[in-house]
C-alpha cells in the first residue's frame, strides 16, 4: 500500500508538472532497535489534479502490518502529507522493513543493516545502493502498476518527455549510534530524525537518491565505544583530585583541632596548681 501511494502521487505529479517529495529515515539505538519512518508530501497541484486522492487511500493493510500512520493531512499550501512509522527490534528487522517498502525495482537496492558487538565497542554498518534505474516505474513492480492504473500514466509521461528528475525527490537518512568512521553520505553532526532521539545516537548521514539511473553507494560504518572515556574520563579525574584534596584538608583540620585541645589541656593543668 505504501508503494501504491507513491506510484499514484508520483504519476499524478508528473502529469501535472508538479513534484512529490519522499523521505526515508532510519534511526537505530545502541541495542539495535529503532524506527523506520517514511514521509511522502505531494503539493497542492497534485491534490487539485486528483481531488479524491486522500479519500481513496486505504491504509488498513498498513495498520495490520504494524505501521503507525500520521495523516493523510493537508499541508499549509494545500498539498497532502502522509507519514508512516514502524519500529524494529534488530537490524535484521530493519533490513526487512526497508525491503518491504522497496519492492524488486525500488530505489533502495539490497540495503542491509548490521550490528557487531565486542567487549570494547559496537560497530554498525549500512550497505547497499540507491538509484532510480527504471525511472518512475521504479516505485512498483509491473503487477502493482497495473493494479493502481499507473501504467497509462507512465505511457503519457514517456510521451511528454517528463523525467523523474522533474517530478520527484527522494532522500534517505540514517542515524546510527557512535561516531561515523566512514560514509559515502553527507554527515550532519547533532541532527535528529523523527523528533526525539536518544542521546546515545550520533550524526545523521543522508543521501539524495539520483533520478537519472546513477547508483549511489550507501556504505557507512559507525562505532560506539564501550570503554570509559570521552567527557567522563576528565570528569572522573577531576572528581578523584577533589576527593584527595578533601581528604587531605579533613586530616589537616582534625590534626589542628586535636593539637589545639591538647594545648588547652596543658594550660589547664598548669593553672590549676597555682590556684
Q: Tell me about the largest β-sheet.
A: 7 strands, mixed
Total DSSP helices: 8
Coarse shape = elongated
- Widest beta sheet: strand line-up: 3-4-2-1-7-10-9
What class, by secondary structure content? alpha+beta
The poorly predicted ranges are: 147-151, 191-199
- Mean of pLDDT: 74
Number of beta-strand segments: 12
Strand content: 25-35%
Helix content: 25-40%
- Rg is 31 Å
Distance between the termini: 106 Å
The sequence of SSEs as H and E is: HEEHHHEEHEEHHEEEEEEH
Question: What does the secondary structure layout of this molecule look like, with pairings?
Answer:
Elements: H1 2-16, E1 20-28, E2 34-42, H2 44-49, H3 53-56, H4 60-64, E3 68-74, E4 80-88, H5 91-102, E5 108-117, E6 121-130, H6 142-148, H7 150-160, E7 168-177, E8 179-183, E9 186-188, E10 201-208, E11 216-217, E12 220-225, H8 232-274
Parallel strand pairs: 1-7
Antiparallel strand pairs: 1-2, 2-4, 3-4, 5-6, 6-11, 6-12, 7-10, 8-12, 9-10
Helix pairs in contact: 1-7
Outline the structure in words:
- The chain contains eight helices and twelve strands.
- With 275 residues, it is of the alpha+beta class.
- The radius of gyration is 31 Å and the shape is elongated.
- The strands form two sheets. It has a seven-stranded mixed β-sheet. Strands 5, 6, 8, 11 and 12 form a five-stranded antiparallel β-sheet that branches.
- Helix content is 37%, strand content 32%.
